[in-house]
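May I ask for whichever protein you like with its C-alpha cells?
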Amino acid sequence: MGLFDFLKSRDDEDDELDPAFSRELDGLINQLRNLPSAQNRGFTAQRIGARGHKAARAIPDLLFVLKNDPETDARTGAAGALGDVGVATPEVVDALV
C-alpha cells in the first residue's frame, strides 16, 4: 500500500480524532513549513513524531523536510519523527534508507 492509499484509508479514523488534537497538529505542520530556524523545525518535527500514528497526515510534510531542507537539524528531526509516527509505507522506507 502506498502513502496516498494509506492516508486515504485513515480518513474515517481521522474524523474520530479530538478536534483540539487536529488543530494542534495543523499548527505543528504549519510551523514545520514556516519556521526560519532549522533547530526549531527539527524540534517541531520531533513534537509531531511524539504524537505517533495519529500524526500520519503529517508524513508528506516530514518527507518534504527530510528530502529538501538544507539544514541537518531539520532533516534529523524529520527522520526521527517519521520513525516515531511508525507508518512504514514504501515512500517512508525509501526516504529513511
About this structure: The chain has a mean pLDDT of 88. The first helix runs from residue 3 to 9. Residues 62 and 75 are 9 Å apart (CA to CA). The radius of gyration is 13 Å.
